[in-house]
Every structure is written in C-alpha cells, then in structure tokens.
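so ive been stuck on this for like two days lol. basically i have the seq below and the ligand is flavin-adenine dinucleotide, smiles is in there too. i just want the complex predicted, nothing fancy, no docking runs or whatever. if the output looks off dont worry ill sanity check it later, just need somthing to start from for the group meeting slides
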Amino acid sequence: MSSRILPEFELLPHDIDEAVKMLGLHQGKASIMAGGTDLLVMMGDGFRADYVLSLGNIPDLAYIIEESGKWLRIGAMTTLAEVAESKVVQEKYTALWQSAAQNGSPQTRNMGTVVGNLLRASPSGDCCCAVLALDGWVVLEGPQGRREVAIDDFWLEYRATARRPDEIAVEVKLPDVKGNTTSAFRAMTRTTLDLAKLNAAVRLDMSGKQCENARVAIGAVAPTTIRVRKAEELIRGKEINEETLEEVGKVVSTEVSPIDDVRSTAEYRRTISGVLVKRVIEEACKGV
Ligand SMILES: Cc1cc2nc3c(=O)[nH]c(=O)nc-3n(C[C@H](O)[C@H](O)[C@H](O)COP(=O)(O)OP(=O)(O)OC[C@H]3O[C@@H](n4cnc5c(N)ncnc54)[C@H](O)[C@@H]3O)c2cc1C
C-alpha cells in the first residue's frame, strides 16, 4: 500500500566541514547543489553525478552582511530573491541588484543563488557579469582551509573555474563602494524567461561628470564573461559625454569574440555589443 507520507530520512551534510569531507571522499563523482536551478536542468539534459551534495541543510549560509568600509558578503545559499529584496544591494551595488531582480522567474529567483550563478560559469550568467564589474571575490573552503580568488581569475575557460574539486564556495564578497561610485546591468534576451544573448555591466567611480576609474564587463561574447579593458582605458579620466560613448561603442566590438548559437548570431552580438555597453554606461550615469 502506498502512502503520501515519506519515511524519515537524514539529509546530509549538516555543516561545511562535513560537506568538504564528503566532497573529498567522492571527488569527481559528486556535484554540489545550492538552489538546483542549473544543476537539475543539466541532469535533465543528461549530465551525470553519482552523488549530489546539497547545501540546503547547512545553517548560516544565507546572509547579506555589510562590513562598513570593507566588504559586502553574500552567502552561498542567499537566493536571488533575497538579493533583489536587499536595500543595501539596490542602493550601493545596483548592477548586482538588477542582475538578480531580472533573473528568470519568481520560482527560479526563490531557489537560485548568486554563488550558484558564478559557479555555473556560464558566459551568459547575469550575476557573473555584475560581479565581474563590481570586482568581486569568491571565498572557497577546502581541506586546507579558506582561500579567496578574485573574480578576474575565477573563470578559466568555458564552464571551468579556479575551484578545486574538493572545495565549496562559501560566499562572494564585493568591495565597499563610496558615494561617487555607480553601477548598472542590462541583459538582452529573446523572451523574458530566457538566458541572455548578450549582457553587460559597469562600475564607474565618478568625480562629477568625469570618470576616475571604470570596470566594464560583457557576457555571451566569449567563452567566459570578460572585461572590456580597452573601453575601461578609454573612459578613465574622461568626461562621460556623447563623444566618449561613441568611441566606447566602436572599441567594444573589436574586443569581443562571439559565436553563433541558438540565441543569436556572432555578427549580431558583435554589432550590438557596443550599443549595449553604451546604454549601460548611460544608465549608470543617470543622476550623477
Ligand atoms: C527557467 C530558468 C530561468 C533562468 N533564468 C536565468 C537568467 O535570467 N539569468 C541567469 O543568469 N540564469 C538564469 N537561469 C539559471 C539559474 O537559475 C542561475 O544560474 C542560478 O543563479 C543558479 O543558482 P543555483 O543556486 O540554482 O545553482 P545550482 O543549480 O545549485 O548550481 C549551479 C552550478 O554551480 C555549482 N555550485 C552551486 N553552488 C556551489 C557552491 N556553493 N560551491 C561550489 N559549487 C557550487 C553546482 O555544482 C552547479 O554546477 C535560469 C534557470 C532556469 C531553470
């Protein structure tokens, strides 16, 4: 006779130490699951993992902590919805707030995490783009303890990260931003519930209308989300005006190496990449 009441079972692991041990024991055979909105889709598409190590039962991994003057720290189980509801993220880290708030649907935002987006290492990941512009760091825990990897060094190639097989990402950290720093994010999609065919984010340190420093990130135009360094150099020390934006638009298309895929063509991506970056800079500068 069947019953709708499940028998009792224990969901493992209970804490990070236990998780790291289990990961070491099943190296190469275990996949870590945060919200599962990517992992379970991948498994549905044929990806195999003998063991799934859920972080869902580990307490204290869902947090947004502002260490004033230092970092904003976002835990591995903090959902996209929690980030989208955060006033501090909205006001000080607008690019990340926009990338989380626009991500997928209410269902995927309630389950999916910012850290999962970074670890998935998709070149079209929305939070990847925002965190790269915001100069984030990924904090990893393994048998040797904790280490931190700058997001600039985190994605090695298509879907490959600097995480070692026995490490778990425990949080992402963003450096504190001053009052004159502004940021923005935008994605272009075929439909509202689709991954980006192009996305871009910027962080600008402004002094009046002049840009003192810039980080410009763009996704879905290379094997990983990339920085557009020529555009950053071009803006640095300049006033953001129509002329600068025109030059930025031109330089971006020379820095990208997009491919054709189901979401778009390489030609379209190359042509539009400059326009998208221009618009994101304009948006970041609104009210400056
Ligand atoms: C309908 C739908 C719409 C979507 N829309 C968007 C969108 O608009 N934009 C977008 O960017 N993405 C989108 N996604 C993809 C997905 O929702 C996001 O990438 C989400 O942020 C993933 O987080 P997660 O916690 O669910 O990751 P999971 O699925 O749990 O994990 C993703 C990957 O990261 C690894 N991982 C996760 N956490 C850790 C950790 N702490 N340490 C080490 N490895 C870890 C997993 O092993 C896996 O390989 C969509 C997905 C669906 C199903």
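The radius of gyration is 20 Å. The chain has a mean pLDDT of 94.
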